[in-house]
Amino acid sequence: MPQPTDADRIALAEAWIDQDPDPQTRDECSAIVERVRAGDAAASADLADRFDARLEFGTAGLRGEIAAGPNRMNRVLVSQAAAGLAAYLLERAAGVRPSVVVGYDGRRNSQVFARDIAEVMAGAGVRAMLLPRLLPTPVLAFAVRHLDTTAGVMVTASHNPPNDNGMKVYLGGPHHGSQIVAPADAEIEAHILRVAASARVPELPRGDVETASESVVDAYIAATAAVASAPAAQPRAVYTAMHGVGWETMARVLETAGYDVPALVAEQIAPDPAFPTVAFPNPEEPGAMDLSFEAARAAGAELVIANDPDADRLAVAIPDESAPAGYRRLSGNEVGLLLGWQVAEQVTADRGPGGADGSLACSIVSSPGLEAVARAHGLDFVATLTGFKWISRAPGLVFGFEEALGYLVNPSTVRDKDGISAGIAFLGLAARLKAEGRTIADRLDEFVERFGCYDSTQVSIRVTDLSRIGEIMARLRAEPPVSVGGVRVERIEDLAGGFGALPPSDVLRIVLEGGGRVMVRPSGTEPKLKVYIDASSTEGTVAERRAAASAVVARLEQGMRELVA
């Protein structure tokens, strides 16, 4: 196929400008076209990047930088995606009018995109409802089930950089409000491409949109507060919303459950799409929780609770005298193992004669320690591909997590990660321990003593050229390592063609002598290659187990950095 010329791209850009309802992106695109006509090489490269490709609608929906062109997030792309999703739902309607509920967070253009989505879908014949105001992603996931809609759409880019936005799609009915998985993603994408090729955005009919009742939010708050009501002893806590939408809902849940109001990180408590106090609005990023630690020191806090901007993730920190800030953020694996253990104990305690079925689930890149917890409590264990679109579908699910700060503690109401219900569950755990005269640090020691030490770390290779990720994956497949950091490789499992019950995925699992494990995969949402490293030890004292597992993880990390350099 011949390479497009500047003239080809200018024609595409002018057609785009002609259908774009947003004056800002119209002007932006027009300015680039004028610079290309003037011979500006940088503008030519910019136009090629915007128009030689298109943001693909995948299992994470759409996500990208807000800007003009089909390879960016904008009102044209969002309207086409809404029309394509409506066509998909109508195709499967079987004579019943499909319905959709749409939510949005506090990011730039979130409300505008949400209104476009709802109006275009209504114009296509789908009953469309908007949530009453900006709200956390878990409320939208809850609303799909509570309102019994055919689908749900959340406009958010979660913890991506400030100028990004996106849309996540959920399916109701037999999917129970989980995010879409294959083949639905490809089928929706086919409808979107047909719309883009056959209709201009101004020609897409728009319809009337309903506003969902506040009772939806009330029902979410009641269900979430029931996860862990407050005992008499409560830990002193600090909370940050990371400039997102979590606090209003979290505050109502805390009040309903009987918890004291935590000390707040005032600078980060209100929604702000510029995220002015952090480089990246992600609690995992270095420096993102510095203000939380400052507030915790001032309050003498025993616990720090942080949500990401759309409140579907949870970060937790505890006092640690050895840490420079006086507090240490727990890894996603540590929080997941503690919450999973707590759920396993509850399920075990609630069993009647003959026992009860249930499963603990986590993604394949998350800690294998959850399987040890499941075994010890007579529960099933399910390892899934990364993402809650898979975790939420585990049969008999009672708890699920992934190491990227995602936890599903309330599967009867929300089939997605939920940083608010997870925060309440963790507060409940900390309160119970305090009543017993113990701390979260004590509980971590108890876990190591009972199940062994499961240590982990992650290496992220951020790239500017996405082809670099493909090159590294191809090299690892063509020249598989015989050892990593001096530890012998027992086998390498390539999940590209599927593995066991797992669907195909671009993942390499390197199993090492002594039980260590390395997982390598491209990120699904960022320009990164991600390497996940795990090792465990069940020999000796708690301190000896930690030292042994940590030493292996350090060797594997150094070895993988050399392999993917």
UniProtKB/TrEMBL annotation:
Gene3D superfamilies to which the protein is assigned, alphabetical: Alpha-D-Glucose-1,6-Bisphosphate, subunit A, domain 3 (3.40.120.10), Alpha-D-phosphohexomutase, C-terminal domain (3.30.310.50)
SUPFAM superfamilies: Phosphoglucomutase, C-terminal domain, Phosphoglucomutase, first 3 domains
Domain Alpha-D-phosphohexomutase alpha/beta/alpha: 55-194, 219-320, 332-450
Cofactors demanded by this protein: Mg(2+)
Biological process annotations from GO: carbohydrate metabolic process; purine ribonucleoside salvage
PANTHER family for this protein: PHOSPHOGLUCOMUTASE 2B-RELATED (PTHR45745:SF1), PHOSPHOMANNOMUTASE 45A (PTHR45745)
Protein name: Phospho-sugar mutase
Species whose genome carries this gene: Agromyces tardus
